[in-house]
Amino acid sequence: MKEGYKTTEFWLTLFSTASGILGTYGGLIPTPWGLILSTIVTAGYTISRGLAKQGQ
Length: 56
Hints:
The chain is mostly helical. The chain has one domain (about 5-50). Helices cover about 75% and strands about 0% of the residues. It has helices at about 10-25, 30-55.
């Protein structure tokens, strides 16, 4: 099993969360949508890592 930071899911999650935060900060995305986007992406990553570890 790869370490968490070596997976594609980690980097996609990091990029998506950063995009949501920067978009909100820059005024491109309304604040509630930026928070919702970040929450959904983080929850998806957490679930995918849990399923990956479960199948060891």
